[in-house]
Amino acid sequence: MKNRSIILAKRPVGNPKPDDFALHVGELPDIQDSCIQDNEILVKNFAISLDAGFRNWMDEDAGDEVLPAMPLGEPVMGLSLCEVLATKNPEYEVGDKLMARFAWQEYSIGKPGDFIAKLPKDLEFPYSYYLGVLGDTGMSAYFALTEIAPPKEGETVLISAAGGAVGSIAGQIAKIYGARAVGISSSPEKCDFLVNELGYDAAVNRKAPEGQAEAIKAACPDGVDIFLDNVGGETLQAAITNMNHRGRIAMIGAVTHYTAKGAPSAPNNLFELVSKEITAQGFMTHFRHDEYEAVRQQLESWLAEGKLKSFEHKLTGIENVGVAFCQMFEGQNFGKTVVDL
Amino acid sequence: MKNRSIILAKRPVGNPKPDDFALHVGELPDIQDSCIQDNEILVKNFAISLDAGFRNWMDEDAGDEVLPAMPLGEPVMGLSLCEVLATKNPEYEVGDKLMARFAWQEYSIGKPGDFIAKLPKDLEFPYSYYLGVLGDTGMSAYFALTEIAPPKEGETVLISAAGGAVGSIAGQIAKIYGARAVGISSSPEKCDFLVNELGYDAAVNRKAPEGQAEAIKAACPDGVDIFLDNVGGETLQAAITNMNHRGRIAMIGAVTHYTAKGAPSAPNNLFELVSKEITAQGFMTHFRHDEYEAVRQQLESWLAEGKLKSFEHKLTGIENVGVAFCQMFEGQNFGKTVVDL
């Protein structure tokens, strides 16, 4: 048996390209022979989550306390759904289903200290939900609007990358909380998707000829109270320009920073944070694992009540994981991108 | 009698220059004749506070909810200490001493809605303190470390423009709260001043040959927990690079943004706010007038107990107000800049 992986063949410059990644076919460690050591597990990954944020750690100098920089020639780090095939860790049984930070490959070995979250024995929802609306993606949207920048009823919540994985959930949660949800996206088709499928009250095309700041102003006549930022750069500046006094920014991601060639474009008037007394708070689900169980239950309730829907962009086959990752940066995904292996 | 004013003669480009300002001699309205209308007061300004932040509103497109853009040819807006000469407002008596947002001139007329704070009848401290350590300057330092980003004992508080008006107070308050205070300044002389006069634990010269980020790292071996930013731009980025997980930034001002020619330099990796879960909060004393009385009492206690000292850079004469303002941007002030009229 073979273990197929997608390795980081080249360090992406700007947006990742399919040939930054390459398929590598290795030997699968013999399960019977138990390649695993004490407290390790062997898993089969059956679905891969694509998350734009991982682009950050593809740069050579990107290591931090969340992740080391990804090494060239090694399988690309990501998030997967997997099932335990063999275990020498008493916390796990064969057959357990997990959501874990494993690489883009068919089989992985989990060691103590790895990020691994156990899923319920019987999955109530389609498994891909546990990577999206019930995974890190849904958690990001939930934490942003519940802990970081909770809206009051009637406030205007502006969301960038609004039709992407996090944005597609966040817009719906903003509506659940009684806010007015306005989404920023990159094409007229995605703007239609925001309003007609995701229930946003209004949509802004960030390529609008009048510029982002003017387009946001037209869509947010009462100003912006809360901004959920997945993008950074010029979009962040355009949002700040439209923010109300004591507005709050939840900084979820900064795609323009991961992909900048040279110095990324940055907001060019941070004095507005001072004069409007704005609070900007960065956060990562990475540091909130102990809340996952409780948050998942809340998200499951909303799904069961029909208040929340999952939107997915699905591909199939390990050979398409790199392709799927690149499509996100071209705005080709509507909702959460998942690859079934 | 004449009323001498300093008017905005030209809009500054980058750092303000003395010839951006000009002396204008006008007629003093006849006090007996009472030029003032119902609810107005006539005051004599006897000291002018210089605050770098006002540079922001000298640009043509700078108006916001704090102040309109300053008009060319008109007296420059600022903060003054003054005494009531005539009053048609029952809230004020002749002889009342006030701290008010009036222009750079010898006599001003106060109207309802103007920012005016009454001072105690008998000033316990030198009057210039009521513009500095007991004025907006001291309030900014206090709010930053008490409401926006309060340090825990032993945490490292980094402060930019650390020898300036706000920084010279903030460093002392950080020490009162039991934190380790590290200041960033613009020359070896000012760094000496920080450590030897203001009581900072360490000082960083932002022109150090190794770069600001490296110099901060050396001065903050345990990382930065709290950053009080008066500067923005590259200094802000260098601080962020050295910040610890869940660090807090109090954004007090952004001198590099007021004075940028074209797009100001901006932090070029705001993704660090996300990955380190940093909170950045802008604020202005402008929106906290109702707390002035209570805060002034706290600051007065610290002065009386000898825990807090005032450091002032004093000039004399209305003709020197513009000069004094420019000196701040060249880093020539040690502490609070005040001009006696």
Automatic annotation (TrEMBL), chains A, B:
Residues 14-339 form the Enoyl reductase (ER) domain. Gene3D superfamilies: Medium-chain alcohol dehydrogenases, catalytic domain (3.90.180.10), NAD(P)-binding Rossmann-like Domain (3.40.50.720). SMART domains: PKS_ER. Keywords: Oxidoreductase. InterPro entries: ADH-like_C, ADH_N_2, ER, GroES-like_sf, MDR_fam, NAD(P)-bd_dom_sf. GO terms for molecular function: oxidoreductase activity, acting on the CH-CH group of donors, NAD or NADP as acceptor. It comes from the Bacteria. Pfam families: ADH_N_2 (PF16884), ADH_zinc_N (PF00107). This is YfmJ.
